[in-house]
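Reading a protein record of the kind used here takes only a little practice. The record below shows the convention in full:
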Amino acid sequence: MFRKSYNNNNSNCKTIFILVFTIILVTNSIFQQCLVKGSVPIDWPNLTSEQLGNIAFEEFASVSAENISSIPINACTGFKVQQIASIANNACAGFTSDCFKNIPSDSFSGFNSTCISLLNSDVTATLTSSQASKLISSACNGFTKTQFSKFNSTLNTCNGFSKECLSNIQPYTLSGISETNCFFSVDAIPGLTKDHIYNIDRANFAKWTRAMMAAISDNGCQGIRSGQMNDLIATTNNACGGFTPSCIANIPIDSMSSLNPGCINSINFTAVSAAQFAVIPSVAFPYIYTNTIRTLKGSICSGFTASQLGQLILSQCTNIQKECSQYIPKSAFNSIATNCLLSNDAISVLSKDQISYVPRSNFAKWTKEMMASLNYEACAGITVGQLNDLYNSAGDACAGFSSLCISNIPVDSFSGLNPGCVNNLNLTAVSASQIAVIPSVTFPSVTEQTISKLKGQTCSGITSSQISQLTSQCKAFNKECISYIPPDRFSNININSCFFSTDGISGLTKDQIYNIDRANFAKWTSSMMASISDNGCQGIRSGQMNDLAGDAGNACTGFTPSCIANIPVSSLSSLNPGCINNLNLTAVSAAQLAVFPSVSFPYVYASALKKLSGNTCSGITTSQMSQLTYQCNGFTKECLAYIPKEIFSSLTSTCIFSAEAIPGLKKEQIANINRSIFAKWTKDMMAGINSDACQGININQLNDLYGSAGDACAGFTPSCISNIPVNSFAGLNPGCINNMNLTAVSSSQFAVIPSVAFPSVTEQAISKLKGQTCSGITSSQISQLTSQCKAFNKECISYIPPDRFSNININSCFFSTDGISGLTKDQIYNIDRANFAKWTSVMMAAISDNGCQGIRSGQMNDLYGTAGDACAGFTPSCISNIPVNSLSSLNPGCINNINLTAVSSSQFAVIPYNSLQYVTRGTLQKLRGNTCTGITGNQLGILTNQCADFTSDCLYYIPNESFNSITSTSTCFFSVNAIPGLRKEQITNINRSNFAKWNKDMMAAISSETCQGIRSGQMNDLYGSAGDACAGFTPSCIANIPVNSLSSLNPGCINNINLTAVSAAQFTVFPYVSFPYVYASALQKLRGNICSGFTKDQLSSISYQCNGLTADCIRNIPVHALERMSPNCLNVVTEENVLGFTKDQLSSLSSFTLGGITANQLIKLYNNPDYTLADLVNATQIESVDSNVILTFKRRFENGFLIPNRIISSEEISSTLTWLQLAVSTKLSISKVLNSSNIINIAFNKTLQGLRSDHLTVLDNEIFKYTNIYQLDNLLIDTFNEINSQQLSNIPLIGFITKDKALYNKFNGVNPNAIPGINQTQLIAIIQNIPSNQWTCEQFRNLTEQQTQWFKDEAINVYDSINQRCIPKPLPSPSPIPKPSTSSSYKPQPSNSNNPTPKPSALSSYKPQPSISLKPGSSPKPSSSSRPNPQPTVSNPKPHVSSSIKTSPKPSLSTTKPITSKALSGNPPRDISKNPRVSEGISLLRFSLWMLIISLIISLLL
């Protein structure tokens, strides 16, 4: 009826609606006008921005601060310029921060200075850059310091101030600016005055940019403070580079006093005044860039201070331009650094005053190029101190002084000249007066080249003190210069090193030579003496001649004969030997010789005396002769003839005449010669004595012929010896004995020779003794001999009595091999053992067989250590003659060297065993054959690594019992080459611990026959790393090892031994306890018949190693051994090798063993065509097979990999049917035999594990109806995966309620499509017994509507829990607009199950639905809930269910504001009926009006 009425009166309704809206608009307009005209009081706290903007500006003239503060924040966006401009000044204090920041920027032009000044600083802290930019300039005058201090840097407020605004701000106000809160724009900064700039915080100013600095006006620059400039460091973006030239000119001078390097290097110095430059801190100058230095030019440099210039370093100084250097004040140079060197260009313009202020240390660093750059006029400023420091390498700079410069250097400055400068100075430009003041101390370092440049009048200025300092330079004086040197200056020349050239000397007069110091004259050379003129020789003084001594005397060779003739006689009275020996004596007269001082004669050469002729010698005086020594051999025979005989008594001990002169001597003259002088005569001199003169030789003279003096005795002729008195021989010394011709000495003479002389008698002298002479040798004499003993010849030894040998020296008297060969056993017996121990092998080899019989035990005992080397000399025949008991003391040193091949077994047997332990390697290699039969146990037991030297031939002969001595700690190991010689009886006696240390190469060397002697204990110790040796046993050896010896075999040996050579009998005795440690790789070696030796204990002891068992080995393992095969062993047998199991073996495998079988192994065995696996094993055997293995095996059938081939019979169902037989049976045979009636008769519960999932498709729906819990528990997961709903519904209740059985743990594997078949009883049992987490979401969603209801009724909380888990998270979608009177619902989605589709559960297919909009003519579906809900809800008969679904809380209708189209568009709502708060009367009026309109509409509709 309503619909019809609506349709019929459609046009009328439209008219009514138009009328209603017109009334509303008119009413609202009237109300707004009331507000504008002020006819209505303003409700300031509830204004909107629109309303605020519509308020007449006149209204603001009377507004209070309280009204302003009450304006809503958002309403402040409605402020207009005129409104703000009209605000009563005191009302401005009412602005809040939140309101102030919302005022439009354009409206800020309405603020005046008074209003600004009244604003709270927290309010102005919100001022934005945009707002500030709109302020009129006069308003800015109102800003306070506090307001500026709170400006927010993030709002960048200050950047908005205009130039005009800044110019109106009170300067002091800017002192409120902090470091970072306020930065003005570049365009505005020109408005800042000097007072403004002055008040800006230095930390803030330090952050100004280059562009900001450039914007400062000239007036502003006048306000820059010192502190502000100080903070302009290098990190301020080179802000100083922004200062304009005119700005720089206006910066106060004192402000520049804090300038930092960072600013200096950026500022434009062309605009800096000298006064400003002068106050720049000197500490900044080391950091000024060279580029900056180069910009300094002109008058600015006149501002340089000493401290500033003193801070500059080399790289800076070299960049000072000449346009700058000429302006630098002279006083500034006083502090210039030592290493601050100006460029040549800059130096060229310096004045003499500037030069005079340059520190001497700096001037000393100047180069010659720098000196050359000096203006010659500036050289007048060079000081004495500056020149004084030009020394050493610094003096090289003087080479740069120009001639004009030198001439302008003040004369007194030369007094500071150093050698380094003098030697480089251009002396040709130096005047006489200048050179005269050069310090004499300089001259020692002046070079010869410099002296050679001196010429003419310049030399006349050379002073005595200057020439006294010259040394080698004197030879550089040229003749012209010397001619100007006054004669008296020569008395001051350096006596040691100032020597003129020969050219200069040739011109010297006698007066000049007379003035030359005698010490200097003494150093003249012969060529210099030869240059003296005859006139000059007349001036030679006695003192000068006296000093020509020593080497200086060589100069006398230069005196010419004419010069000697002109030397005054008195001058020769002081002649020195050095001159005498070099003087031309042929020009000397006898009278002159007579005055030669006798004190000079000791130094006169023999060669000089040879020049003396006969008549001249007559003048020789006694005093002169007494001074001669070795020179006497210079006397000639003719000269000696003139010397009186009494003169000989005054001969000195060293005055020895030549042999040519001696034949003229008489016995009386010889008799007068002192014994000490005679002792110095040579053999040639002795040979010159005539026979008659020899009668005068006395015992004292012979006694003094010892040592080297004894060599002279070789000169005595036989006739002379025979004339020497006999008693004189009692004084004979070894020196004379060793040289005298002993063949001429009689035995009586020899007998009186003292024994003390014999230690020094030479071997050569001993070798000359022969025949009867030797018979006189006494015991005391032979006891004194040492090395000389080897010189005794055989003939002489034959005369020495045997008892004399007991007295020979034990350490050094050793006879020659020739002498030894003649020694008898008695003589050898008497030789001391200590002496015998020092005999060499060569000496031992010389002993005759007879002599060897005399060798004593003590003598052999002392042949140890290196002494034992001598044993190598014993000949075989000698060894055989050494008494046996003498070898009982044999030492290792001798054993190592003696020829053991010559030692008999009886001799070897007595060799001390403790000596054998020190025998060196290689010694025992000499033992051969029968000798080794003498080796005792003690001897063998003491040996260590020497055992490796035994040969196989020797080993064979060693007695069996001797091997018992090789102990467990013994390191006696035989070589691989020797081991083949061992016999089985010997190897049996080898200690097991020693045997355990044999390596595989040694084992490999054991002969097959010998292996029969290997004991069980020996094999037992081959464990661990010792087991590696087993790899060396050869197959033939292994075959011969006794079976019982292998019963103690360890894993280490088993893993290395060649198992292919082991027999089954041997293998059988391998200890089973070793098998857990046997490697799989070892078992892999087992082949064929060997494996028939396997025992059940052995096989039960291996597990993972079984992967090494080959098929060939497995098929040979005895059936009884397989009884205890472990499941782990079977588990690792490879798939290929598992085929080695025979039918008999498989049928005998225990359930324990088959518990380790794998699915792949089953597949291999199943596919073996040689037998039918399922019929070989019974149910008991395979009851331990893991269900996962069965499952994997069955799935190979289910996926078609395996084809079932067995036909099941009805008879076996209740008797022998196994799970394996069931698993491999065809579906057809199953369908014919198995049913719900007989399935309960299956004898073995595990049999049902063989039920395949594809079997279910041919079995009836009641197949499980009568099964028991144990049968159900054996159904595997794959069965439940394919069960259908009817089969599931027939499963007994017991299958659902038994904990840990059947479906309790497998419910999540139940086919989801079978879920609808669950009946109510089953479902309740499931809910009550099976954990809810067993439910899968797919199963849960397949619950029918009825099942769902059952579920909820039984356990709503469980249901909700699963439901919540299985609801998919909705995709994001726009939030639906809530409707106050409608609710939405969704349609459940159908299930995809192939079974008859039950009514789906509401939750099983939940999907979020879009919001529903009503179309004309449609009506909303009622909600199942009595409460309106804007979200999609779930239909549910129980109200409490919906409350369990977690949804976001939504507002109720009573509190939800209507949502308008503007709200949806994102604009804030403007409803005039609610937002403004007007007076109560107006509210009632408007409410009444609305009620009237609504009543009218309702009446029209009805």
In short: The radius of gyration is 70 Å. Confidence is low (pLDDT under 50) at residues 1-10, 26-39, 1373-1484.
